[in-house]
User: What shape does this take?
Amino acid sequence: VQLVESGGGLVQPGGSLRLSCAASGFTFSNYRMRWYRQAPGKERELVAGIGSAGSSTNYADSVKDRFTITRDNAKNTVYLQMNSLNVEDTAVYYCTAPTLNSWGQGTQVTVSS
Assistant: This one.
């Protein structure tokens, strides 16, 4: 199982980023996927989840209406569109297939002016 996140970077408050997570080594379309994040000195927290078919999603209250999780099962990729970013969104973002207990290496998102 391999999960590779990308798309992080430095963005100003109010800006947007789109994270991607490329999956391999398992039948991606069979698994629910999640994005987590971990800020310095804080515990890892769930950001968003999506069902295997992409029809069901859930979000942390802190990102609801700003972030959108989607997936492309043909490309074995899950995405996180992040809009209206603020400094509290600064963290390392990870994708995971929770039932496989497998994690990517993470991608750093820094929101700063």
Q: What stands out?
A: The CA atoms of residues 3 and 56 lie 21 Å apart. The chain has no helices and eleven strands. The first strand starts at residue 2 and ends at 6. The chain has a mean pLDDT of 96.
